[in-house]
Amino acid sequence: MRESAYELLLATIFLSGNSGVEAYSNVDRKKEKSSKFLSGLKSKKEKMLSHSQSQLQSVGINSEFLNTIRVQMQISEAMDACIRRNLMQLAARRMHEHIDLAHLSLGLLNGIFQSDFRNEKSYRQWKNRQANTLEELLFFSANGMTTAHLSIKSHVARIRDEKEWDAKMSPSERVAVLASIRQVAETLSSLPGRFGIEGETYYWTACYQLNMRLYEKLLFGVFDILDEDQLIEEADEVLSHFKLTWPALGITEKLHNALYGWVLFQQFVETDAGQLLENAVLKLHKFLSTEELDWKEYMDSLVCSRQCNGHELKLKLESSICLSIGIWCDSTLQDYHLHFSQKPSCFRTLMTLVSAVGVLIFDDRGEVKLRKLSASDANVSNKLKCYVNKSTEAIYWRVANKVEVEAHAQRMHPLAMLAKELKLIAEREFNVFWPVLRQWCPESLMMSIVMLHQFYGERLKPFLKGVSSLSEDVRSVLPAAKMLDEYLIQLHSMALVADRSFHSSDQTLDHYQIGEVSTPLILDWVISQHAHILEWTGRAFDIEDWEPLSIHQRQAASIVEVFRIIEETVDQFFGLNLPVEITHLQALLSVIFHSLDTYLMKMLNQLVDKKHLCPSLPPLTRYTETVIPVINKRLLDCEPLDDNVNNKLNELTVPKLCIRLNTLQYIQKQVGKLEDNIRKSWELIKPSHNEKCTKEDSTKENSLLSHREAIDALFATTFSIIKDTARDAINMICAFTGEKIVFWDLRDKFLSHLYRGNVESSRLESFLPHVDAVLNLICGLIDDILRDILVLSIFQASMEAFIWILLDGGPSRAFSDSDVSLMEDDFIILKDFFVADGEGLPRSLVEKEARFAQQILGLFSIQTETVIRMLMDASEHISVAYDSGKSGRRLEDADTLVRVLCHKKDREASKFLKKQYQLPMSSEYDDTSDKDSTLKSPLISDFLKRSYSIHWTKEGQSSFKSIKKKLQEATSEIRNVAR
Predict the structure, then answer these.
(1) Confidence band of 64 (pLDDT split at 50, 70, 90)
(2) pLDDT tens sequence across 867-914
(3) Dist CA 665 CA 675 (whole Å)
(4) DSSP secondary structure of 365-430
(5) How many other CB atoms are found less than 10 A from the CB of residue 690?
């Protein structure tokens, strides 16, 4: 059929009455004879190509263009050249006024012989095709059989007979047979048309099926043979040349659109190329919307017969095309998930096609009909619902069977994999198919969702009954089932809203019983994590050496590990993707609280009571100007420490204390992040509490409000306590560090040395370099946020130590009026050292913390008589004014004033102390005696019941002048890392 169509196309080109044909006959034939000798030197192929090109030039056809058509229709070059040569000969003889298939076949049989073919098989096939064409046109098309028609049968049989036609029969005999056949063809060709249409021939209606199939074969030539889902670039030009065959085949514009749309549709079915389907829809729409009134009777006469559902149908050509397309669409739509899941645009185009040709409907008698798409047509609506049901069921079973095979290979539970696959199906139904189907079948989404929910629910129920723990299978199945359940119900609700007319109560979806099954299991899991994390926290703390992780990560490795295991637990908790309640959250926060609280308590338990840092109180004594103090270092020793306390103090070095402080600061920062992450994760897995409530739902609104308040309170309680504990621990360790540095590490440089024996020879300047070295060490280790807090605690401890020297300095220290001036200078230097020209602690803060020490120092400048009067006034009110256990030492306390008098190198003070309190002179003091043996007065015993007040503060800005350069280097390094 393809070759016959090509022959007809060439015939319409070469025999179209072009004047170039005559030019070739008269001129080019002479050139052909004159060059006979040269042509003999060429190969057969070259001769055919040269001759063919000259022929095309004569009729004004581009050689390359016609060659494109030949290649597209898969015709060999040799066959093409042979056909062209014979067509030119026919054109020269102008044997017939009209071009028709019968005369074309006869002309080719008369001029083409076996020698024109490369092999006998090709010749035999070509000859039989021509015989079949003649038989179809002249014998089978006849309404009544005459003698002439019957002779056609025998003539065609002789043509088919290889031995008789090519071997036995002479050329004259073959010409006689063809002449006899031509006579019948001439008779048929001269018959008038049935419908009186201009140019109409007998063959239009007598052989219309053959004509349509030939034109169909021509139209298939516009598809690229190397890429069948694409049209060739020259498609429009090729189609314009195909139009030359219309008079011979009886093709009209409407028929062309119908057949071209049908061909495009068939090619789409073969290649699945969406663009072809779109083109087919355009052509078929054009065909169905075109009215050719003058051709109506002719079009109605083109009747086709086909079998459908056991019935033989007689249909007009256009109805037959629509029915064929409708049958394919019907079959495809019964599993549209299979055919269009990956090509959503094709589904929309297909439904456009269905709206053009109609939906295939079988009536009660089984007869087939095509009904136009209409939402109001019950039959059409039922048909679309049938498509939804069948396609959903088909895709479910296909996926279910695939999952059973692939689940084991992928090491997943089949139910988990099935849930994910069904979710994808529902997504496609919602995003791809429902937007198209809803205009004719609004409930399509609801129907599909209900089916998927029901199918999976039936598979899930037996699994839920067997769940007893959060096993690996349970952890994979329940979250997947939950996600599917929530998504399907969400889509179902959207479908209900979209289709307000469909609110049947039996269409509501109930959640799978996942929450009921998982709630106790999650709680058990969190409880089991509690012991595990506490054990891990204790293990990490016990092996901690309090060395920084790196120069940029100054916290301890143990706290990083603790937060890692906590965050891992939190991720696992929310990663379960299961329904959770506030009880689960409370249990999780309890685990976090106890883990961090345990860590903090362990850290604080490593500290030493500050009482072990303070030296023993020396005995009270009195001085005279002639007394040379007895210097006895043993008076500054602490009480003997047990091994546990001593070991702790040895371990609590300044660097390790700094790392502890950095660790506490890290805890505060990470706790804030942890709280934010948990809050965000909680909001993601819980239903929104911000939904609008109607007035009738005020109870629900109040319930949601109280629920939010409970959650907020739970977070606030848990994390605020941790933050407060960490902050208190920072303050406690800062205070301890300051006192340890001053009262323990630098005891020999400060408490033992400053003003001992002689103020002028033991000034403060010998102590400051040691403090400066400690501060340099601290600034290289401590977190910037904590630096000023820790420095302030060192300053506070220095003030405490300075007061201790003034009041509890012991027999080795006595201060004259001239000494006080030097001490005041030292005091100013000490304050300025921590202010560091404005680059250290704020001046106001330093002055505030130094105020009490300043006042104590000021008492030494007051006349002795005045101090004695102050002491006597304080002694009268001591029962109500002094409580060392609560308020500590105060300026007007009798204890303070007595100690000032004891350290004044003044005859009047010494005389008073001897007379009133029987205190011995320092030279008379026996350092081996009990420190309380000289206290004759019960009042003095009360004086010695003192305690130290410790000032806590967060203020502070930068560092000190002496370490300015080090701080600048550290800051520069931190900035470089941040970049």
Answers:
(1) confident
(2) 999 988 888 765 433 333 333 567 778 889 999 999 998 889 899 988
(3) 16
(4) TS-EEEE---TT-HHHHHHHHHHHHHHHHHHHHHHHHHHHHHHHHTT--HHHHHHHHHHHHHHHII
(5) 8
